Amino acid sequence: MTENEDQRLFESQMELLREGYREKLGQQMDKMTGLLENLEKSLDPLPALETLGHELHKIAGGAGIFGMPELGKKARTLEIQMKGIRERAALGQEVPVSELRTAIGALHVPESLPDPEAPLTSPLPERSSGKAGAGDVEEPGLLIIDPDDKRGRELVLALRYFGYIPKHCAKLSSAAALFPQRPPHAILLSLSASENFFSVTALAEEIREVFPQPPPLMVLSDSLDFSTRLAVARAGGQGFFIRPLDVPKVVDRLEQLIGRREMAPYRVLIVDDEPMVAEHFCLVLQAAGMEVQREEDAARVLDMLSTFRPELILMDVHMEGCSGTELAGIIRMEEEWVGIPILYLSAESKMEEQIRALNSGGDDFLTKPVDDAYLVASVSAHVSRARRLAELMAKDSLTGLLKHIRIKEALEVEMSRSNRDGSTLCVVMLDLDHFKRVNDTWGHATGDRVIKALAHLLTRRLRRSDSIGRYGGEEFMAVLPGCTPEKAEILMEEIRKNLKTIEFHAKEEVFNVTCSIGIACSSLGSSPEEVLQAADQALYRAKEEGRDRICIR
Ligand code: GH3
Ligand code: MG
């Protein structure tokens, strides 16, 4: 679906929802009229007053969301007055029924729906994350501008080993034709010895003309002089490298700048007992590229957490049967969900109530009606930070790969999945050859760069559905679901060859490294331990047989 079609579908769904909501408002008004009649007849006015308050609260929260902010405000004022009436009625005072009837009658529903552009809702927010269900990793396009053809081609080759698709041109004027669909993810501008401050400034200007939203710029140069650095900084450059190029270092910076993999969509659970309000939030978040599920029944939320595994809960505060804050308490009792962000969404505007809600396990409080763009921004900010934290906990700081314990957990999860659906899975163990020598000769810091380079290679080459971990110091493990040993061998052979070709620079010298690889397939054993052991034995054999090779069990 194109973006325009997406937008039209979103708008027509919203339109339907708004119409449905108007109809429902009519029913709510009828219900309130009925309650007023009961009030006059019954001896105990408290239950009817309570239900009236509840209905007013729902309108206070919902009307603004569906483009009727005035109605929402009136309902809110009346809801507050209602509390006083209830308290006085509890003390035996008379209920001012006719005044209530006038006030409720004044809550008229606007004849026609307001223009959907007009309400306080912002235009459809931008997609905040990758398209739902996006498949394999998109290989990032790079533009290399180098007047020296030979040098440009060499850089193209070197970066290909890391899974990039670089395109080289000598002049910027021919760059646009190389990227007809979309601009490159980054530009590497390679300067000749004769180029200086002025040429960088002029080139940066030209880049802005060719690509109106210029991608991150990195500059490669022969000299370190301050004026060139300054020109690069003024041109918005985000990396500066001296020749001879240390390609893994350049890749490291590229990874930081353009991100390693396409992000999976954020997963959000909406808990609200008002189906239309929940549907509205659901559409807004989905339009922003998120995966959303709704749950109206508080008793089912724990089950929903374990099946859907959301990264954030959007929680209504006032729900019948179990309030949002009570439900948050129940969720926080489960160790696994102690850290999940909970955002309360409520028409409650009283500061003390909001503070009470936040004190009972919530992370933020959004007051209904909440602006669509604000909702998306708030949800995105919370999920992205939660993801970053979860990553820091699960991932190794040097390589960004899963830690030992996490990659073993991933193997267990994938093994049980493949046993269920009858597919095969491969486990790969990979170890750098004679790595001790690298450390001893070039120093530990250089050794670290080698480890990182191999990690980059693996992340670039493997699919998003694959799990990759740093199993030990210079030992890596990958779990490839749905992969045959033949496919795994082809893939790992490519990685083995690429690694060998990478030139590492240290102490003004250049060196290469190799690795040994063991592969085992899940059909070999029924348990994760057996497959892991088989892969380990295959790796041992690869070492025994002379290293720099792959063995399959
Ligand atoms: P083999 O080919 O048999 O695997 O030989 P090797 O030298 O690679 O294996 P060995 O187990 O003898 O040495 C591994 C070295 O890896 C020793 C250790 O200091 C180094 N190492 C482990 N973790 C790190 C790390 O995080 N950074 C660096 N720079 N070195 C590490
Ligand atoms: Mg080793």
Automatic annotation (TrEMBL):
It holds the Pfam family GGDEF. Gene3D superfamilies: 3.30.70.270, 3.40.50.2300, HPT domain. Keywords: Phosphoprotein. Its EC number is 2.7.7.65. Residues 423-553 form the GGDEF domain. The keyword Phosphoprotein applies. Residues 141-258, 267-383 form the Response regulatory domain. InterPro entries: CheY-like_superfamily, Diguanylate_Cyclase, GGDEF_dom, HPT_dom_sf, Nucleotide_cyclase, Rev_trsase/Diguanyl_cyclase, Sig_transdc_His_kin_Hpt_dom, Sig_transdc_resp-reg_receiver. GO terms for cellular component: plasma membrane. The modification 4-aspartylphosphate is found at D316. Residues 110-142 are annotated as: Disordered. It catalyses: 2 GTP = 3',3'-c-di-GMP + 2 diphosphate. GO terms for biological process: cell adhesion involved in single-species biofilm formation; negative regulation of bacterial-type flagellum-dependent cell motility; phosphorelay signal transduction system. This is diguanylate cyclase. It is an enzyme of class 2 (transferase). GO terms for molecular function: diguanylate cyclase activity; protein kinase activity. The keyword Cytoplasm does not apply.
